[in-house]
Design brief:
Strand content: under 5%
Number of strands: 0
Largest sheet: none
Oligomer: single chain
Distance between the termini: 39 Å
Number of helices: 10
Amino acid sequence: FLNVGDAYISLPPTAVIGVDTALAHASKTSPDLEFLLRQYSKQQRDGFNVLLLFLLHERFVLGKKSVWWPYLNLLPKVSDLRDFHPLFFSEQEIDKYLAGSDVRKCIYRYQQGASERHKAIASDIFAAQVLGGDVLFDKNKFYW
């Protein structure tokens, strides 16, 4: 039996994808990816872009060759997300289902922020070299 405060499950830090794990993994596997991630880690405190770039690399560049593949393969595919994730909704769909709702404005802001992030990172020539244009310039993969 578990008592309040007892751990139900415990994972070693190396089993969790975080900024430190991404940087450590890249340092052992890809000097270019490591350099890219370190550049982005200096630009942003929360590490979102570092994780974004690392996950894009592991999922779409390495794919089944990634040590993280068993985990990444459990996540929804791009085609699955297009059916239910608000980031992929058209303006018509948002207006149809959420007219008069404050959620509509939140989704528009979310979409705009993701689009601006994509434009900023897609303009990074080195990021395009590391990830490949087929990954970086594909908004569906980027939004994944």
